[in-house]
Amino acid sequence: MKSWRFFYRFLRVFFIVFAMNGSLTVQAFTGTYGINYGRIADNIPSPDEVVTLLRALKIKNVRIYDADHSVLEAFSGTGLEIVVGVPNGNLKDMNASEDHALSWVKENVQSFLPDTHIRGIAVGNEVLGGDQELWGVLLGAVKNVHKALEKFHLTDLIQVSTAHSQAVLSNSYPPSSCIFNQNIVQYMKPLLEFFSEIHSPFCLNAYPFLDYMGDPANIDINYALFQSTQGIYDTKAKLHYDNMLDAQIDAAYAALENSGFKKMEVIITETGWASRGDENEAAATSTNARTYNYNLRKRLAKKKGTPLRPKNVVKAYIFAVFNENLKPGPTSERNFGLFKADGSISYDIGFKGLKSSATSSILSLKKIRAQDWSASYSLVFTACAAVLLLFLRL
Length: 394
Description:
Keywords: Glycosidase, Hydrolase, Membrane, Signal, Transmembrane, Transmembrane helix. By secondary structure, the chain is of the alpha/beta class. It is built from 12 helices and 12 strands.
């Protein structure tokens, strides 16, 4: 009986590990291209249709800004890898109580595993450099979420992170001179120390669009759009940059190195270009948005690093799947989508939109899931049969 109990436990662990892609190392990002699935809108397709769309586009990495159960259920059995978010409004409670963090992780993460491939938890978004009331609670919230994952034995499967805006950086031109803003260093340093301990990356929301909009007189738009240009030369590092995104990434690497975290990886958690804007947002056009996103897609497909970190392949999540009609702020904020609210493309970068028939879309989703189930579990069955034969010989 003891032997059979051991074998049962082995099979249970085997199924869980296999369902999480057969790895005991955190892999929050597969490949180089991901996308942000924002939902501040009342007119976008259902989560089931979004899954169909993303599968058709062959985009596997997806970030959401909460842990909405309808989204997590729609992603179940699809093979898509998702990073869920702890909203900024939850950070104070998450910092104050380990039990609160444990309950949140149990309800929004652990209960959906292994069918929904949750690969990461982003604790807050653009906190440092943003709302000062949250600066002091971010690290505690991050640690409590990680402790909750430890209790569920999920730290080898799910990565904990937080995304920063460029507001945390200072002196970013030239890139090698970049440091962290002095007003957030006392919060950033211990956060980076913890992320270094748990092997999490530095996540940056980087927008050449915003930098260009802030200084169009002195920035060549071709440099921001990955177009042919003379670029810039960093005399301190003796490195040439032919596009702004690479420079923004290397500015973050320089700030990390100057703080003692040379080995930490930088991942771009948001980048994109608005296809429409207000009168004072002249660069927000569909032509520029198409150029940026098309060239960005080509750049990521090359799987290469930056001038400062040539061996660190650039990984980026594009912002965003859809235009979001309820987002506050200027018109540009509501027009970053690769797709319009009806599922049609905003501009052509080689992607196709949703099928016109919702029924056919849902049928395709069922077909996709059936194929995933069949392929995955036939492999599991074969592996388990082999183990069983070995066990019976003992």
